[in-house]
Design goal:
Elements lengths: L8 H20 L11 H25 L22 H6 L5
Helix pairs in contact: 1-2
Length: 97
């Protein structure tokens, strides 16, 4: 990424390609029980494109030092816990002199 934190041209291209492929899949997905309009080979090719896009996006993120966070559920326990500390609680915990 550049100093303005703008996505590089390659990142923007990958994002658009992923969006367009997703739209093609969504628009061509048939109702249950109906035959898919795309051939099995085309479906496999689309999956391969998604995999290549994801792999390159991870490479670019790693090169730019962006941490890749995994998705998580909102009710999933956090690994770190925040412990509030106030000055008054510190005064109350002083050892007896």
């Amino acid at each position: 990424m550049n100093s303005n934190n703008e996505a590089s041209m390659e990142q923007r291209i990958l994002r658009v390609m992923r969006t367009v492929l997703g739209s093609v899949v969504k628009d061509t997905t048939p109702q249950p029980g109906m035959k898919h309009a795309l051939s099995d080979q085309t479906i496999e090719d689309i999956k391969a494109c998604f995999a290549l896009i994801a792999a390159r996006e991870m490479e670019l993120a790693k090169e730019s030092g962006i941490a890749q966070e995994r998705p998580h559920f909102s009710d999933e326990p956090q690994k770190a816990k925040v412990v509030p500390i106030s000055k008054s609680s510190l005064r109350n915990n002083k050892p007896n002199e």
